[in-house]
Amino acid sequence: MNNSVEIGWLRVNVNPLIKELHNTVTRWIDTYTCFLLDNTMRKIENIDKFIKEVDEGIKDKNLPKGSDSNEDKAKLMKVMTHLSDVK
Fold first, then answer.
1. 0.85 cut: is pTM over it?
2. Which helix (H) or strand (E) holds 47?
């Protein structure tokens, strides 16, 4: 590769420019890769938390068994909300 470029009577050495451009691109690639990794890990943690919350809500052992009390209706609504959130 030619190390210099001639512009009229001016000769410019382009190696420092190419090296700096390479360093800048490398830094941006590293920055974006770190962003993608952090964002993906955060989303996976949120999904895991959601799955555990829904799993606990659905496995509630004290579900109503034909009673019409307000407490039983509230428990049923809670489970229905978890099921709805899964969609």
1. no
2. helix 15-58
Q: How many angstroms separate the first and last alpha carbons of the chain?
A: 58
- Cα–Cα distance, 33 to 28 (Å, whole number): 8
d(CA 63, CA 66): 9
2/62 Cα distance (integer angstroms): 78
Task: Record the tokens describing residue 81, joined without a space.
Answer: 């909300």
pLDDT tens, 23-51? 999 999 999 999 999 999 999 999 899 88
Pair of tokens at residue 72: 């039983």
Closest CA to 71 of 82, 84, 86, 60: 60
CA–CA separation, 84 vs 67, rounded Å?
A: 22
Query: Is the CA virtual torsion 41, 80, 72, 62 positive or negative?
Result: negative
CB 3 within 8 A of CB 15: yes
